[in-house]
Each structure stands twice: as C-alpha cells, then as structure tokens.
Automatic annotation (TrEMBL):
Residues 532-570 form the ATP-grasp domain. It comes from the Bacteria. SMART domains: CoA_binding (SM00881). The keyword Nucleotide-binding applies. PROSITE patterns: ATP_GRASP. Keywords: ATP-binding, Nucleotide-binding. This is ATP-grasp domain-containing protein.
Length: 739
C-alpha cells in the first residue's frame, strides 16, 4: 500500500444572503463572504466554517462526565481526557451532583464553567435543553451522541428539526446527533507525507480507512457526521480541501442533507485539485431504504447523484477496500507524466490476464516501440513477448537484469505507470524483484504499482520492503489496483482542465425569462402550443405551425405551412396524444386536413379532453429523434436530461443527466455517455446529425432550468429531431408542467 432535503436549498440561499450583507453567525463560523448569487438566488461559493477549534480546541467541556465504574459515560469521559491531553486542551467536566471527575473539579452547569470553551461534548440523552445555555456561554462547537432522531422516522425527524432550529438560534455549530467518538481517535503522529481526511456517516464504515495507518498511510482527521442536524458532510469537505496536509478526502456517504451544498464543497476541492473519493450508498432501493433508516438522510436518485459526482470530479467507488486503496494512491502519488500503462510480470499468463483487465478498465496500454522491445530483449529471451504486456520469464528479474528491465520501462516516454503483478511469493526471485522495484520507484517520478497476491501477507518482502516504501503503491488485488490507477489518471485530467461550473452560472435573468414567466400557469400542465411558445422564448426551434379552431382555418394553415403536414390536438391536460388518436401525420391534401380536423375534435369530445385548438404543423422526417428536458431531484433541484427520443426513451431508457450549472464540455460529455451515441454520428448510410445544434438545445434547456426552476416541475421535449449536420434541431413536441 502506498504510504438534506430539497427545501434546504432555500435555507442555504437565505444564509448566503445574510453573509453577503455582513451579518455573520456569532461564535465559531468564519465564513467566506458570499457576494455572488446565481439567477435563482442561490450561492455560488461554498460557505466554509472554520473548524480548527473543533479539531484542536484549547478548552473542552464534558457535560454529563462520569468516573463511576460500569457507566457508559465513564469510558467516553476517559477517552476524551486522553484525546484532550494529546491535542493540548483543558478539560472541564460538568455534572450537577459531582464535585470532581477523574480528579478534575466539576462545574454544576454550563453557566458555571470557569472559561469560555471551544467544544462542548454532550453526554446526555436529550441535548435540546442545553443548546440555549451553550449559546449564551458563547461555546463554539458541540457534539451530540444521542440517537432517536431523524433515523427513527417522522417523530424523530421533528425532534431533530427542533434541535436544528435551536442550534441556528444559538450561533453554535453542532456535530450530530447520532454521532460517535471517531473524531477523538488516536491518530499516529509518526507518519509523514500527504494525509487522508475521512468523513463518514457511519463510524464503523470508516474503520478500514482508519486502519491504513497500520500500513504507513497518514490520516489527519475523521469527521463522523451522523444525522447532520447542523454540520454536514459538505462543511467538512470544504474545510478539509483547504488544509495543507490533506492529500485526499475519503468519504462514506449514506445520504446528503443538501445537494447544492455538497456540489459547492466538491467544487471547492476541485478548484484546489484535492481528490475526493466517496462510497455513496443508494444504488439499490434496499440500500437507499436502509441508509435512510440509519441517518435519516435523502439518498437521492442514484443516476443523478452519480452524474453530479462525476460533474465535480468526485470519484465514486463501491466498496470500502476500493475506498482505502484509491484514496491512498490519490493522496500520495505525484501527478502523472504520461497516461500509458505497462504490465510487467514473471508469467505470460498473468501478464495477459492483467492486461486484459486493464484495457477493460479503460486504461491505455501502448505497444512498446520496436527499439524499446529490442532493448528489453537484451535481458529477456527473444521468444518471450515484450510488446506490452512484458513477459520477463521470471529468471531475469532474479538477478542484475531485473533492475535494467524496470529502468528501461520507466525510461519510455509513453509509459507513466508500471504495474507488476506478483501472484505469489517465490523467494528469492520475488524478494529481489520487489527490492529492485522499490529502489527504482525512489529514483523516478513515474508511478510504480505492485499487486502482491499472496493470501498470507506476512512475507518480509511484502510487510517490510513494499509497505516500507512511500513511493511504491502496493495492492492486494488486481481489481483495486486498476480502479485506483484509473481514478488517479482521471483525477489529474479533470483538475488540469477544470473550470468551475459556478463561474459560468448566470447572475441575472435573460430577456427570455420575462416572456417565459408570462406563460406560466401555476399547478397546471401547459398545452403543446403554450409549451412550444416557452421553447421559442428561449430560442429553441420548433416547426412552422399554426393553432386553428375550424376546419377551414386548418386548410388555410396547411397551405401556408406547406404540405405534407401533421395535425395534433392541443390542450392543457393532454399528455399522450398518440395513444388517444389525437395525432394525424403525412396529410397531403385539403380534404385530408378537413377530415383530420373533424376526427380530432370528435375524439377529443368523446374522451372529454378540453382543447385550445388544433395544431397544423410542418412535417419534419429526416433526423435522429432525441429527448431533452427538465426534472426536479429532491436533493439537487432542477436537473437536465438528454437521451434517445421517440419511443426509444421508454424502451431503452438511454439518457444522461446533469445538474445545472454546466458548460458546453459537460453537454458534449452527456452525449458520449449514451449507448446510442453512434446514431448521431451516422449509421447505415445516414448522414451525421447536427451535434452542435443538439448541444446548443441542451444549454438552452439548462438556462430554462436555472431561470425557471421555481416555475417548472417538468419539461419534456420529445421528439427533438436532430437534423443532418449544419441543419439544426427542431422540437416536434413538448410537454411542460408548472409548479
């Protein structure tokens, strides 16, 4: 091993406005001054509390302290005393009936504390009655271990909201409730190098990362956020990103209190090039339900969470062992010099297997040049393949030739990563090999990875040599190695070109907003005609069409629009026109138009559907049917979706999603995620589609989401016909539901 709910968005917006006016919260929070708000009034920068006095307080009050043997509070008090001694904090026990605890004089109440304290630890079943006292005493931070809040259901959630409201009034910052002692663990102080900062919503799930210290990986902080009535994952993420000793942030997240706050925090980390690796629970319904019962958090729609994390460079992994290995590599490894990966093994079978897995993981395995292969064949028998993967045959790495092979590979300018799988110990050959790899790693700025496959893990070559190196990245499984290397390369590509989406967010409404706002009908679905007017207001092209209320007018409109035409019933509550027979296509004559008008109105009358008229539309046939739209996520608010349209959207569900704001690069990235992306490039002789026009529509829909997010519950443009390259894109149908 290489050494909230959606409603919370409103709360954050209000807090940002208060800070912008200079009315900061009293006590611990020294926030960034948030002067910029987006067009919807939401902050564009993270609100970062100063947590230094939480992690390294000068004085600590332990309320409910005990030294009576057999009581749970006694063990906690003892651990807090040990921790305070390590960080140099003065401890003040508080208990109404005890004169002293562990020899320290006891205050009878918070009001009788001998000095203002930085941190109060609440060892009580109900922390609510203490909050006002703590605020009056100007306590900076408090920790509440008590459970029985939002994780238990509605009554607990209401109790937690009362606690949160009391905290807001008091000016203190609270960790918990339903948290634990992880923040006060004993961290090794003999380790050097960049550290991992850890955030968990379940203490036990952080244990594997904490245990990395036994393998020589430094940890600097552990934030067990619990139910997050006040301090949340985003607060710690923002603060950790600014600490100079933090090389990577590892997080175990069951649910998010506030999606917007999380993205602002991830943005802060990305701006500072600090990698964030996270396990996020909720990929399945069972996982989401269990997480909610554990911390009372919203897990969110997983595809939206996944997209939002990618959008801001958060590396999502599935298992705790992946969290360990990926965070450790990202914390310690230098930036890559090249993205080429070379596999070097003592077995041809091993090399081929690992190379196959690496290519499947999306890593680039360049074929070594003829010159490099000839150089390698000086030390490796000529009958062995050295193109990449490199089969060294075993015996050459057991003597002086091994170091020459390693140096030759690392000297190749196309190679940025050397991966050496050792499927099992084979002394003395494997001992010599790892010694050469460690020595070579000390002399190169390229990444050297070893996969030590022995199930024992007790061999000196592993325990002493590999784990004793701060430059070799050692893994126990090939899968974790490849996951970590891919994440490392992806992270550095991402931060190299990163431009904060929040820097691109509009601050003021566009001229389109006023036109669109006038079309809104709160709580109602717009007719297709009105929905298309909404699209026109934002510059999204729709077909030539007219709304008519008589057969004669329909005939005149068809002549003006140009045959062939499509005729559709238009009404505020029509969602599925085709299923009701309320669409007629390919009409080529006046008689067909008259008959179609009568048939459409008859069907509408029979179905009890109210009409505002019949649309006579230009018929657009040649193109790729796509879908674009807006939906509301309970965590992140308005989101933008694009995918294959027509009936394919219901059959294949081939869509990509992003959380506004985002730029043109992310709009293009959405298209690359689609399984049917090749349709836009032209297949079976069809011309390539106008991808640039499609991207422009996605960006205009995003502008609608940003400006009309409080007005639109749903927008569905389907089909959005993307014409051949250079001809644009046309919204053939649209559905809009107002909030």
């Amino acid at each position: 091993m290489l050494g909230s709910t959606h409603g919370t968005l409103t709360t954050d917006s209000r807090r940002a406005r208060v800070i912008a006016c200079g009315d900061q919260r009293p006590g611990p929070a020294v926030h960034d001054r948030v002067a910029d708000l987006d067009v919807s009034g939401r902050p564009l920068h993270a609100d970062v509390p100063d947590l230094n006095r939480f992690f390294r307080p000068e004085s600590v009050a332990v309320i409910g302290a005990s030294d009576a043997e057999g009581r749970p509070n006694t063990g906690i008090t003892r651990q807090l005393l040990d921790w305070a001694g390590r960080v140099g904090a003065r401890v003040h026990p508080v208990h109404p009936t005890r004169p002293a605890v562990f020899g320290l004089p006891c205050a009878a109440s918070v009001a009788e504390l001998p000095e203002q304290v930085d941190l109060a630890v609440l060892l009580v079943a109900d922390p609510l009655p203490l909050i006002e006292e703590l605020g009056e005493a100007k306590v900076r931070f408090a920790v509440a271990f008590a459970s029985g809040f939002a994780e238990t259901g509605r009554a607990g959630a209401e109790a937690q909201e009362r606690l949160a409201e009391a905290v807001r009034r008091s000016g203190i910052r609270l960790l918990g409730p339903n948290t634990n002692l992880n923040a006060f663990e004993r961290f090794r102080d003999d380790l050097t190098g960049p550290a991992i900062a850890l955030i968990t919503q379940s203490g036990h799930q952080g244990r594997p990362v904490f245990a990395l210290q036994e393998l020589g990986i430094r940890l600097s902080h552990w934030a067990p956020t619990g139910n997050e009535a006040d301090l949340e994952t985003a607060d710690f993420l923002s603060w950790f990103a600014e600490q100079p000793e933090v090389g990577a942030i590892a997080a175990y997240v069951e649910g998010l209190k506030d999606g917007r706050a999380f993205l602002l925090a991830a943005d802060r980390a990305a701006r500072r090039k600090v990698p964030v690796v996270a396990v996020k629970v909720g990929r399945t319904e069972t996982g989401a339900r269990t997480a909610a019962s554990h911390t009372g958090k919203l897990t969110g729609a997983d595809d939206v969470v996944d997209a939002a994390m990618r959008q801001y460079g958060v590396i999502r992994v599935d298992a705790l062992d992946e969290l360990q290995d990926t965070a450790a590599l990202l914390a310690r490894a230098r930036a890559p010099r090249a993205d080429g990966v070379v596999i070097c093994s003592i077995s041809g079978g091993t090399g081929a297997h690992v190379a196959d897995l690496a290519a499947g993981a999306g890593l680039r395995l360049p074929t070594l040049s003829p010159q490099k292969q000839a150089e390698l064949h000086q030390w490796i028998p000529g009958y062995l393949s050295v193109a990449n993967p490199v089969d060294n045959g075993g015996h050459p790495v057991g003597d002086r030739r091994g170091r020459k092979i390693i140096d030759a590979l690392l000297a190749d300018p196309a190679v940025g990563v050397l991966i050496c799988p050792v499927t099992g110990p084979f002394p003395p050959l494997s001992d010599r090999l790892v010694k050469d790899l460690v020595e070579a790693a000390e002399e190169t700025d390229k990444l050297v990875c070893v996969v030590w496959g022995s199930p024992a893990g007790t061999e000196p070559a592993y325990r002493d040599v590999l784990l004793g190196s701060s430059r070799v990245a050692t893994f126990r499984t090939v899968g974790n190695c490849l996951t970590a290397v891919r994440a490392w390369l992806d992270h550095h590509r991402f931060v190299t070109d990163y431009r904060s989406p929040f820097d691109m967010a509009p601050r003021t409404p566009s001229p389109s907003f006023r036109k669109a706002e006038a079309l809104m009908q709160p709580g109602r679905q717009l007719s297709e005609h009105a929905a298309k007017q909404l699209l026109r207001a934002y510059g999204i092209r729709v077909p030539r069409e007219q709304l008519v209320t008589s057969a004669a007018a329909a005939v005149r409109a068809a002549g003006q629009v140009g045959y062939p035409v499509v005729m559709k019933a238009s009404g505020a509550q029509i969602a599925h026109k085709t299923e009701l027979g309320l669409v007629k296509i390919g009409l080529t004559s006046a008689s067909q138009v008259r008959d179609a008008y009568r048939e459409l109105t008859d069907i509408a009358r029979y179905e009890g559907v109210g009409l505002d008229g019949v649309l006579v539309c230009q018929m657009v046939e040649q193109g790729v049917e796509m879908v674009a739209g807006i939906t509301h996520d309970e965590l992140f608010g308005p989101t933008v979706t694009v995918g294959l349209g027509g009936i394919l959207v219901e059959v294949l569900h081939d869509t990509a999603v992003r959380v506004p704001p985002f730029g043109e690069d992310q709009a293009h990235a959405m298209l690359t995620e689609l399984r049917g992306r090749a349709l836009l490039d032209g297949v079976r002789g069809r011309p390539p589609a106008d991808v640039d026009a499609l991207v422009e529509v996605v960006l205009r829909v995003q502008r609608m989401a940003l400006e009309l997010g409080s007005h639109i519950a749903e927008l569905d443009i389907n089909p959005l016909m993307v014409l051949p390259r250079g001809q644009g894109a046309v919204a053939l149908d649209a559905l809009a539901v107002c909030r």
